[in-house]
Specification:
about 350 residues, alpha+beta, five-stranded antiparallel beta sheet, about 35% helix, elongated
Length: about 350
């Protein structure tokens, strides 16, 4: 029966399943979707998700000889099994990339020992087949972000379906909070994250592993609600329709906001700026954006967020040594009056939106 995935997906288990799926489909042309899903103990939606990935796999890192597999929803067809069944011959760059990646994965702390040993045996065989080419790969190395065993604990919790307790630093609020989370999956988009159901906020949240200050695997079973896994290939942060709406107005110097933040609309303003409407599960995180914008932007709504941004501006101003009381009062008064762009009391140094300081 078709349905949404009801359990966390371990990347290693999924990879093993997909490798078996290739052999299974080669021996069963036109296999029925429901039969294949039943044979692998997964839902039809999970199987279709695997089938969406397989056509991007093949025998060449350069993009040739890809698996030509598709489905009409009832049956699965593999159109070129004989083409990709020929003996694999690795080019020098392919062998180097494969060996470097294999050695890197073998160092992951969350890898099961049996899988690690199997990978090391396979790596040794590739080294033998590659001959002199393997020498270049030995001079390269890759390091994963798995500090403090956080990666290992998260991967173990996912595999054993157990809840996690974490102390997590949030740069948006500049605070450390304690949370219990039900981990769903590990993802890598520039950094390594765990997507989880947060028991504190009662919502899906994504936590960056290098911001986890402390972690414990709890005895309680992990029981996230049935939620559809999101496609994170385009962006890690994907606002939902039910998230609060925030309106920000920026001047010409703040148009970059529309490029970096997912938004619902960006309307042109007479002065060359933009009126940007966006959604976020955590509106308070945009206070830092207001401070970065300085004269180039202001939060229009919701009103409580605009007030919070002005308060943050006051606190930033009073933190500077040598600022006279009169000057501070004038600056805050300008901000409260909705000056050139609202929170104009906070100015950025000329080193740009990413390197600026209040």
């Amino acid at each position: 029966m078709a349905g949404k995935p009801v359990r966390p997906v371990n990347a290693i288990d999924q990879t093993r399943r997909m490798l078996s799926l290739v052999t299974y489909l080669k021996e069963r042309p036109g296999a029925r979707v429901e039969d294949v899903a039943r044979a692998f103990g997964i839902t039809e939606d999970e199987l279709v998700s695997d089938l969406d990935v397989l056509p991007m796999c093949g025998t060449s890192f350069r993009g040739g000889d890809l698996l030509d597999i598709d489905t009409d929803g009832e049956r699965i067809w593999w159109h070129n099994p004989d083409d990709v069944a020929e003996p694999l011959r690795l080019a020098a760059d392919e062998a180097t990339a494969l060996l470097v990646a294999a050695r890197a994965v073998a160092t992951l702390p969350g890898l099961r020992e049996s899988d690690r040993q199997a990978l090391l045996r396979a790596t040794a065989k590739v080294e033998t087949a590659a001959g002199e080419t393997a020498g270049a790969s030995s001079r390269l190395s890759v390091t994963f972000e798995s500090e403090g065993g956080v990666f290992a604990d998260v991967d173990r919790a996912i595999a054993e379906r157990r809840r996690l307790w974490i102390r997590y630093y949030s740069p948006a609020r500049d605070e450390v909070t304690e949370r219990e989370i039900d981990p769903i999956r590990l993802v890598s988009v520039g950094h390594t994250y765990v997507e989880a159901w947060c028991r504190r906020s009662e919502a899906r949240r994504t936590f960056r592993l290098d911001r986890v200050a402390e972690i414990k695997i709890l005895d309680e079973p992990s029981a996230p609600p049935e939620i559809e896994l999101r496609d994170l290939s385009e962006a890690l942060v994907q606002p939902a329709a039910e998230d609060p709406e925030v309106v920000v107005e920026v001047g010409p110097g703040g148009r970059w906001v529309a490029e970096y933040y997912p938004h619902d609309s960006a309307d042109e303003l007479p002065d060359g700026g933009l009126k940007i409407t966006l959604r976020t599960p955590d509106p308070a995180s945009l206070r830092r954006l207001a401070l970065r914008l300085g004269r180039d932007g202001r939060i229009v709504s919701p009103p409580e967020l605009a007030d919070s941004a002005r308060q943050a501006a006051r606190e930033a101003l009073t933190a500077y040594d040598g600022i006279e009381a009169a000057g501070t009062a004038d600056a805050v008064e300008t901000a409260e009056a909705g000056g050139p762009r609202g929170v104009s009391a906070v100015r950025l140094a000329p080193d740009g939106p990413d390197g600026g300081r209040a």
